[in-house]
Design brief:
The termini are far apart. The chain has a single domain, classed as Sufe protein. Chain: A. It is built from six helices and three strands; from the N terminus they run αβββααααα. Strands 1-2-3 form a three-stranded antiparallel beta sheet, with helices on one face. The longest helix has 20 residues. By secondary structure, the chain is α+β, with helices and mostly antiparallel strands. Strand 2 and strand 3 form a beta hairpin.
Length: 161
């Protein structure tokens, strides 16, 4: 089995940081109306402004292996980083996933997220992979973080709250 397929299966079967935890600053619920995938995501920040750190991301995700794995990867990649760094990671993931196979992804920036590069060739699955990420940016905004570096189109690609 391909290493990337194995990474997706591992994150799907053993999602990292799964389960809704307290404390949290904001909670969002997003649904991918095309397939029914759902995620409830909580974010907990420490500090304020551009220096704020992502202390925790917890979530409950119901859906396909791509959706669950992508949300697991999200949590792994943003916890412990600044909000600014986490938004750069989001932008790198979004760019790769919406590239229709033209952007292989930057492993330094998105870690295990590169395993999802193949999803970009299947537009119907892109929303699955972006669901947790758009819920995350929504939660950041609700927690008072400045997410102006992301476009409103990017935030709406993953689902509805």
């Amino acid at each position: 089995m391909d290493l990337y397929q194995q990474l997706i299966l591992d994150h799907s079967k053993h999602p990292q940081h799964a389960g809704l935890r307290e404390p949290f600053d904001a909670e969002t619920h997003h649904v991918n109306t095309s397939c029914g995938d759902e995620v409830t995501l909580r974010v907990h920040l420490e500090g304020e402004g551009s220096d704020a750190k992502v202390a925790d991301v917890s979530y409950d995700s119901i859906g396909c292996s791509i959706s669950v794995a992508s949300t697991s990867i999200l949590a792994e990649e943003v916890i412990g980083h600044s909000v600014t760094e986490s938004l750069e990671t989001f932008e790198a993931m979004r760019s790769m996933l919406t590239s229709r196979g033209q952007d292989p992804g930057d492993e330094e920036m998105i870690g295990d997220g590169v395993a999802l590069a193949g999803v970009s060739k299947y537009p119907a699955r892109v929303k699955c992979a972006l669901l947790g990420w758009t819920a995350y940016t929504d939660a950041l905004a609700r927690a008072g973080a400045d997410i102006s570096s992301t476009s409103s189109q990017a935030r709406s690609q993953g689902g509805n709250s």
